[in-house]
Amino acid sequence: xxxxxxxxxxxxxxxxxxxxxxxxxxxxxxxxxxxxxxxxxxxxxxxxxxxxxxxxxxxxxxxxxxxxxxxxxxxxxxxxxxxxxxxxxxxxxxxxxxxxxxxxxxxxxxxxxxxxxxxxxxxxxxxxxxxxxxxxxxxxxxxxxxxxxxxxxxxxxxxxxxxxxxxxxxxxxxxxxxxxxxxxxxxxxxxxxxxxxxxxxxxxxxxxxxxxxxxxxxxxxxxxxxxxxxxxxxxxxxxxxxxxxxxxxxx
Length: 251
Description:
Elements: H1 2-7, H2 10-13, H3 16-19, H4 31-35, H5 40-54, H6 57-69, H7 74-83, H8 85-88, H9 90-109, H10 129-141, H11 149-152, H12 154-168, H13 176-190, H14 194-206, H15 211-225, H16 227-245
C-alpha cells in the first residue's frame, strides 16, 4: 500500500534540478515532422487523459466515446486510465474507470461491440523488478537518473523504478510514445507542474513524438480542455522549443 500512496505524488515530487538530467539529444526533425499532426485516435488520447486528470467526468464521457469511435481499443483506454493514477491520483483513476465501464455498457445496449484489443503480457515470475524498472527508466529518458531528490528521499526512487517504470511501463499493450502522449496531456491539464511537463515534453520527443505533434497537443488542450491550461502549456512548450533551437547539442 505504501508504494501506491507514494506513487500518487509522482507528478508533484520531481524537481527542475533532478529532471534537468533528462534533456535528451533528439535526432533532427524534418519540416514534415515539424508540421505533423496527431491522428484522430491520438487526439482522443489527449482529451481522455486531460479530462481524466481534471476529474471532469461529463467531458471525459464524451472523449471516451470519441476515442472508441476513432478506433482505440478497450484495452488501450483502460491502460491509459490506469497509468495516469501515478500522475493524477487514485481517486481520479477510479472515477475515470467507472465512467469508462458505464460508457461501454451504454454502447453495448446500442449494439456497439467495441474491440477489446491486446491485453498486457505477464512478466516472468523471476523478474528483478528493480533492475527491470531501472533499465526501462534509462531507456525511456535516454540516460540514467540519479542524485538530487532521489538521494533526499530514496524511497521514491525505489517506488518509481519498481512500480512506475517496472510494473506500469513494463506492460506491453501500449508503446512508450503513446504513454508519454497520455502523460503530457494529463500534466498539461493539471496546472502547477510546469517542471514535470517540461521534462515529459523532452521525454516524449526522445520516444518519437514530433514537434508538430506536440504543438497539436497543446492546441487541443487550449481549444478543447481550457484556455488557461492551454496558455500555460503553450508557454512551457514554446520556451522549451526556443531553448532546444539555441542549443547545438540538441540538433
